[in-house]
Structures are given as C-alpha cells and as structure tokens.
Recover the amino acids of this structure.
C-alpha cells in the first residue's frame, strides 16, 4: 500500500499453471458484485498475517487464502483448503440455474471454527439471502458436505406482498353469507388492514391515492384544498366518488350491490399500494455489523436487521420438511436441528401443521365465526378463583366446549374430504386417537417466551423500539393464529368424534380452557399493538402561537398503544448470553409477554384503561372497554370515559356501581390508580366515606358544567354526610368542664373538634355546589333550601345576593308568573 507495487498475484481459483497467453479468457461482468474480502482471524496459526476470501465469478467457487508474506512471490500466499471445492448449491437453493451471486460477507470464527458466510443472490426480480456456518479447517470431504447441505435461507418476513396477502386480516373475497352477517363493512376492514401500524408507509398510501384519483380523473382545485383532511377521509371519499346507488326491482336500495362495488374499488386501490410497496421493499444490499455480529438487509426505503427465528417460526417456515421427512432425518439435519431444543419438537411441529391445514381448509365464514365466538367465550373467563370454592361439573365443562362447537357451526363445515386430510396429517402422530393432553400442553408451553439468562440492568428495548414492536407484532399475530388452529382441532375432536375414538389422556375442556386463556391475553396484546395514538409526553410539548395567522401542525408521529405505554418496561427480565440476532428475537418476544397477563390480567388492563382516560384517548378507551373485568374501579374508569364522551346518564350508572368498595376504609386507591389518573387531592375522596366520594363525582360533572347531575350527586353526598350542626357548640360546652381533665382526654377532645370542623367544611362545600347547580337550572326553591342548610350564617350574604339577582334577571326575561315564589 505504501509503494503501490504489486507484491503477490494469483488466480482466484489457484489456476496459475495455465498459460494465460493461450486459451479462452474469462471476462468479468461489469455488474459483478464483490469478489474479495480481507479478514482478520482470532487464534490464527503462527505465521499468518491476515486472510483473503475470494469468490470466482467463473465457477462461483470460494477460496480462503492465508497471507504470510505479501512480498514473497512463492511462499507468501497459500490456499487453506486446496483439496476442497467450496461452491454454494445455488441451483437448488434458488430453484433455477439462472442466478447471480451479488455479494458475500465472511465472519470468521476463532481459529476458523464456527465461521459464518452470508451471501445475497439474485434471480430475475427475486433476491434471497443465505447463511452457512462451518469449520474451515475440517476435513475436505466434511467441509464439502457442509457447503452442500448446511445452508439456511433468510425468510423475507411479514412485510412482503405475499406475506401481507396471506395475513388473516387481508380483506380477500369473502362469501356472501359472511358479508351479510359481518358487523364490519368492506371500508372498515380495508382501513384497518391498510393502516395497521408498520404495514404500509404513509408515503405509499398517499402516492397510491394520487395515482388512483388521477386514473379516475378526480384531481381538481377542490381536491388540492382537501389535502388538509385526514388521509382516511380522503381515501374513503375517493373510493366512493364514482359509485352509484342502485335500487332493486322492489324499489329498495341495493345495499349488497353497493358493498360489492365498494369492495371492487378497494381492490383496485390495493393493487397500486401493492406495486408501490414491492418497490419500497426491493433489496439493494447486504451489510454486516462486525461490532455486533449482526447482518442487515438494505431495502429501497428501509433497513432491517436479520434476526434468528424463534422455535415456532422455524416450525412454520419448514413445514414441508416436517411433513415429508422422517423424524430421524429431521433431528439430525443441520442447521434445522440446532433450532429444536428437545425430542418433542417434531411432534409439536406436526400437530401445529396439521391443525393449521385443517382450519385453513375450511370456509372464510367459519374462520370469522370461530374468531368471534371464541373471543366471546374467552372474555367470559374469570382469572380469580371461585369465592365459593365450587368446582364445575364435568357436564358443565363439556357443555361449554359444545357451545363453542355449535356457535361456529363446525359440524356442517367439515366434509369427508376435510376429515380425511386431517386424519392423514396426524398419521405420523399415531392418528387423532393418539393425541393426548401432554402433546397439547407441550405445544402451548412453546407459545410463550420463558425467561433465561442472568439478571441485567438494561431495558429490553435498548436496540430500538421499531425493531422491538415489529418483532412483537409478528409474534402475537403468529401465536394468535396458532391458538385458533388448535382450538378448531380440539372442539372438532370433542364434538365430532366418539369418546372411544379419543385417547383416554385427552381432556377437551382442559385444553379448551388453556387455549381460551391464551386467546384472551393475545386479544389484549394485539389490540395494544394494532391501535395508535400520539405520544402523550410529546403532545404536551406542542406550543402554538395564538397570534400566528398560519396553521401550525401539532401532530406527532403516532405510536402503538403498546409502545406508548410499555416501551422501556420490564427491565428486570434476565438476559441470555447469545448472539445479537438471537437477542433481538428474545427481546421482542420477552417484551411482548412481559406484562404477564396470565397472572396479572386485571391489574394490567385496568392500568391501560386508566392511561387511556388520563391522556384523553376516549374513543380508544371505549373500544378497549370490552377487555375490562367488572370491578368497582373498572366501573369508575368507564364512568370517567362516558362522562368525557357525553354519555352522562351511563356515567352516572357507572359511578354508582361498586361505590361501597371505593368508599370503604379498606380501599387502597394508590394500588388501584397505577396510571395516576387522579390528582393527589382527588385521592382523598376515596376510602373516606360515601359523602366525599359523591362530592368528588359532583365536582367532575361541575367541571363540565352539567348542573343537573352535579345536583344529583351533591344531594347523595349530603344524604350520606353524618353531621350534627350543634355538635361543635355541645363540644365547646363540654370543654369548659374539662379544664382539669387529664391530658389524654383533652387530646381526644381536640381531635374530635378537628374532625367536626372538617365535616362542617365538607358540608358547606357540598351545599355550595348544590346551591350553584340548582341556581344554574333555575330551581330557585331548592337553591334557597340548599342555602338554608349552611351552618355558618356569615356565608349567606353572597349566595343570597346571587340568588336574588339571578331570579330578578329571569323575571325580566320570561316574566315573573313563570317563576315560583320563594
């Protein structure tokens, strides 16, 4: 490098003995990618200075060269594996013989053991990544076998067009029965699909909308003025712009035809989104972070780390191997065997694959029915033990399974062909009659993420919340589908097969109960991962100049509720000593399940509800309400939500439910209000009696200027206030006779006096609010009655003047004859 002279020269294939003046010369394609990499190796043999890895574009053979002396022509360079021909089997891996190895990266292991080779290969428009782990100093025949059989492909993930269209949320063509009974319109389904967090970029949706509007000739000056409208509204307006409403022969609106036309336009728009999204995800390069040992896939519009698949993901991606190969081959197949921690993995994989094939083979109407009915059943589950200690009978348990079976109409869904396919898929497990609870338990246990490693004082999300939430979303979606697969299989076996056809160790209700518990947890987690809001802490920082004449945007990048509430949490989870690609998967899964809903369901969902109400996300809170347990605190939170939404009567009903618990001295409001919804002064109204609780509710209505309900709760507060107006005067008389009493008695008397004073102040506060509420509703007689309740006559003057002035104003306005006399 210092002199610029050529020190050592050799052929990429080591074919130096040939006469280069004769014979065919190989010309390298100008588009050829990387062919050389310099590598440093820890624990290298003595004498080696550094190494060079080359890839010949002629026959795609890799060579590993040791550089001993860059200035010595004869002995300065040597081939580490001259007897082995190291060529990736890309014809088989790419399923074509027309391909190009674009680039590669070698990550040497210590002493060349556990060395990794990453390659990126293109065949037409298809680009794939592959990885190989090998020991370079192994025997030549063993090394060639590794290069032939031990390659691992990188799955493209959940954001490819094919993966997106195979997602259960994709609004594909649905049957007429489902369309007629579905509570969601095609537009609602498409909006939920298109705006799912992280699925499509806003730029993609905006660009597709522009092209769509241009195609329909909807671009105009008015459309430019509509740019300030939300994207969802502009999208819906464009979709319905050219749709006409027809009528049937009977003169009724042809709603079915209208919905069909709308759905067709959404599919047209999605065709544009799909095209733009595929361009956005086009592979550009492969990068490798040598500091963290982490490969990155560089795309046209984003970069993504390549993480290790979880055990469940490995089973799903390699289902062809699990269904076509013998168990002995699978458990000895490298690298697949490295992802199977125990001997039971093969049976679990085959159960999952069979259950998946069974459910996916049934109609879309059944898919939706199973999801809806199982969700209803799951929401009825109680996490708390039965207070009476009553154990459900076997008949009751079997009835619950049968109810779900009937709700899904599963009996009419499964044809003889479906049953035969299911039977065939379970043959490797001994048939349906050999499926037992141990196998189902082993499968369900793999759906979580067990803690492993040592305690570490660091957040799970330190490597990036975007990576974490994307991994969590993929985990939750996959696990949700697996739960439904297993549930469909269990209720079919319980409902269609005779008891003698089932294993004695198969208990349908036990598995049904476990699956519904998991389903309930995943419904909550999926809701958190699929709904977005502006980050509250950022929203408080928005500053708007009231004197500015230009409209300023106060919007902040939207985060999922999962990120907004829980990002950075679960610091106490242990961390395993693994590679970064494995850690990213572990972090995502451990963070997704870090809330421990199975053991703390009520506390977590109430915390979420309190957080939503606290930050003003009332529409989201109304949607989340279905997950709440029925408890006094949940009723209070629902009441606060309804109050903000203007449902004052419903809020009143919510506030009055469970007030006994919230007003009891045993109420620990600090433990309940984990979201810090209540101000410090408001917490004093809980656990201190009904009067103070109802006064708090009255103040909530009063703040919204709802005098009628303010008066209702102020009356309730006054009714539950135990106070003798003459108590203080009696205590004063008593004090005069206690001048020589013991100090303890005098202290007790002083405390009693303090209590009476506070009670009197509370009564005056209640009466003041009651008087104000009656005055605002022009109920002057009751306002005067509230005034008379004041214990301190000195407080009469100002309210009395206000009452007289208000009555006089009203008399002049509508006439005195319409007002009752005082």
């Amino acid at each position: 490098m210092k002199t610029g002279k050529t020190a050592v020269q050799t052929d990429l294939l080591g074919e130096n003995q040939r006469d280069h003046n004769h014979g065919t010369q190989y010309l390298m394609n100008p588009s050829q990618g990387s062919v050389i990499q310099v590598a440093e190796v820890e624990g290298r043999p003595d004498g080696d200075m550094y190494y060079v890895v080359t890839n010949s574009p002629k026959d795609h053979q890799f060579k590993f060269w040791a550089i001993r002396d860059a200035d010595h022509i004869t002995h300065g360079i040597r081939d580490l594996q001259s007897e082995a021909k190291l060529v990736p089997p890309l014809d088989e891996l790419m399923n074509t013989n027309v391909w190009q190895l674009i680039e590669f990266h070698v990550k040497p292991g210590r002493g060349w053991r556990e060395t990794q080779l990453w390659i990126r290969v293109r065949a037409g428009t298809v680009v794939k990544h592959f990885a190989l782990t090998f020991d370079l100093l192994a025997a030549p025949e063993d090394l060639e076998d590794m290069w032939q059989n031990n390659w691992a492909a990188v799955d493209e993930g959940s954001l490819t067009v094919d993966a997106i269209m195979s997602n259960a949320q994709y609004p594909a063509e649905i049957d007429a029965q489902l369309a007629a009974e579905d509570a969601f319109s095609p537009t609602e389904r498409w909006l939920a699909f298109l705006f799912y967090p992280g699925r499509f970029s806003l730029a993609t949706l905006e660009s597709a909308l522009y092209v769509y509007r241009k195609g329909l000739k909807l671009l105009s000056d008015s459309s430019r003025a509509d740019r300030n409208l939300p994207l969802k509204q502009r999208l819906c307006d464009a979709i319905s712009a050219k749709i006409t409403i027809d009528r049937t022969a009977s003169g009724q609106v042809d709603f079915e035809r209208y919905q069909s036309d709308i759905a067709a336009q959404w599919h047209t728009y999605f065709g544009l989104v799909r095209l733009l999204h595929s361009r956005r995800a086009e592979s550009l390069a492969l990068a490798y972070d040598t500091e963290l040992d982490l490969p990155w896939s560089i795309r046209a519009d984003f970069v993504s780390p390549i993480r290790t698949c979880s055990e469940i993901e490995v089973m799903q991606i390699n289902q062809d191997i699990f269904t076509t190969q013998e168990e002995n081959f699978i458990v000895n197949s490298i690298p697949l065997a490295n992802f199977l921690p125990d001997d039971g993995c093969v049976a679990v994989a085959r159960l999952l694959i069979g259950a998946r094939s069974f459910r996916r083979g049934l109609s879309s109407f059944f898919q939706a029915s199973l999801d809806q009915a199982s969700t209803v059943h799951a929401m009825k589950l109680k996490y708390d033990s039965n207070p009476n200690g009553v154990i459900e009978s076997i008949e009751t348990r079997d009835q619950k399974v049968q109810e779900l079976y009937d709700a899904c109409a599963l009996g009419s869904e499964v044809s003889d062909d479906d049953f035969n396919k299911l039977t065939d898929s379970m043959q490797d497990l001994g048939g349906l009659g050999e499926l037992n609870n141990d196998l189902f338990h082993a499968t369900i246990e793999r759906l979580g993420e067990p803690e492993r490693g040592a305690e570490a004082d660091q957040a799970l999300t330190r490597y990036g919340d975007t990576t974490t939430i994307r991994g969590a979303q993929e985990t939750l979606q996959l696990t949700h589908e697996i739960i439904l697969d297993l549930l469909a299989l269990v209720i079919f076996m319980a409902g269609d097969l005779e008891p003698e056809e089932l294993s004695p160790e198969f208990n349908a209700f036990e598995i049904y109960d476990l699956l519904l518990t998991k389903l309930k947890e995943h419904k909550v987690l999926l809701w958190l991962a699929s709904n977005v809001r502006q980050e509250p802490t950022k929203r408080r920082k928005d500053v708007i100049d009231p004197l500015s004449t230009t409209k300023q945007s106060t919007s902040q990048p939207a985060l999922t509720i999962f990120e907004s509430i829980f990002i950075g949490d679960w610091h106490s989870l242990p961390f395993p000593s693994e590679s970064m690609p494995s850690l990213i998967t572990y972090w995502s899964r451990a963070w997704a399940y870090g809330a421990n809903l199975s053991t703390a369901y009520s506390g977590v969902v109430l915390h979420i509800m309190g957080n939503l109400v606290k930050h003003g996300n009332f529409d989201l809170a109304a949607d989340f309400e279905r997950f709440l347990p029925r408890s006094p605190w949940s009723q209070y939170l629902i009441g606060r939500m309804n109050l903000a939404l203007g449902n004052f009567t419903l809020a009143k009903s919510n506030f009055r439910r469970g007030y006994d618990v919230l007003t009891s001295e045993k109420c620990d409001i600090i433990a309940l209000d984990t979201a810090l919804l209540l101000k410090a002064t408001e917490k004093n109204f809980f656990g201190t009696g009904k009067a103070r609780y109802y006064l708090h509710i009255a103040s909530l209505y009063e703040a919204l200027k709802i005098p009628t309900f303010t008066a209702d709760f102020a009356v309730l507060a006054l009714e539950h206030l135990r106070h003798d107006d003459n108590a203080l005067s009696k205590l004063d008389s008593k004090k005069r006779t206690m001048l020589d009493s013991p100090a303890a008695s005098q202290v007790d008397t002083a405390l009693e006096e303090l209590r009476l004073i506070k009670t009197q102040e509370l009564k005056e506060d209640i009466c003041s609010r009651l008087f104000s509420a009656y005055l605002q509703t022009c109920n002057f007689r009751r306002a005067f009655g509230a005034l008379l309740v004041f214990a301190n006559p000195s407080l009469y003057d100002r309210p009395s003047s206000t009452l007289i002035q208000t009555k006089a104003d009203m008399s002049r306005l509508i006439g005195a004859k319409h007002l009752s006399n005082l």
Q: What stands out?
A: The first strand starts at residue 36 and ends at 39. DSSP finds 34 helices and 15 strands in the chain.
